[in-house]
């Protein structure tokens, strides 16, 4: 594989690379199955142990090496900062050959010998120093042109090497911008939902607070009603108790007055005393909303006036 003409001036150039060592450039150009421009190096001296091949890659030979495994391929972008100035390389290849000046002088002298007759047209005599000066100027201009061309080629090569990276970065940046736009839309949607939820939460809190106040008010009202009802029933019970006590006292007095008259006079004293007869029940109206309760037998279902159990005469029963 041959080096492209625009890089042929680098062939044979010695170079020193950090961490690698001394080497000689043997090839500059593309490598099969690889992207970008590569430089083939023949490592010298102790640096030869860093070699990877003999100047070939994937069955294709690009250059030859002094040792079997002293060859190494590196990307041009990595080697370029360590290359010598281009004018130094060109001045080595384009040095002025002294034989050119001598041949020009001999040509001029032979022309004068062949045609010694003066001519009507005067040909200015150009000394050897003028030819050398012109040649030096031309060489210098060629070197400058070559330098600028080399710079352009280097820039083009660098741009070619950077183009895939730039394209990759542009693709990545575009993807990131799309992702950021998607995230912004998602954040805006979440903010809208959050605002809606906060509004709904505040409304629910207001409803709960209102229900709590309503429940509290209802319970207070019910408690007040129950308390009033209890006070009323308590008063009714006290009133009923008082009436029952009065009725019992009246009934006891009536029985004590009628007891001696109802006994027969001819009855012998030895005759056993008969069991007390139960008095006919007295019916009293119950207080509205109250169940009947007997203070004598302490049972519900009837009042004290209707109790079938007869109280002993003369006993005063207190109701509590």
UniProtKB/TrEMBL annotation:
Pfam families documented for this protein: CAP_GLY
Residue ranges of every copy of the CAP-Gly domain listed in the record: 29-75
Residues covered by region (Disordered): 215-288
Basic and acidic residues: compositionally biased ranges: 215-243
InterPro entries to which the protein is assigned, alphabetical: CAP-Gly_dom_sf, CAP-Gly_domain
Domain of life: Eukaryota
Stretches with biased composition (Low complexity): 244-282
Name by which UniProt lists this protein: CAP-Gly domain-containing protein
Organism: Henningerozyma blattae (strain ATCC 34711 / CBS 6284 / DSM 70876 / NBRC 10599 / NRRL Y-10934 / UCD 77-7) (Yeast)
Encoding gene, per UniProt annotation: TBLA0A07320
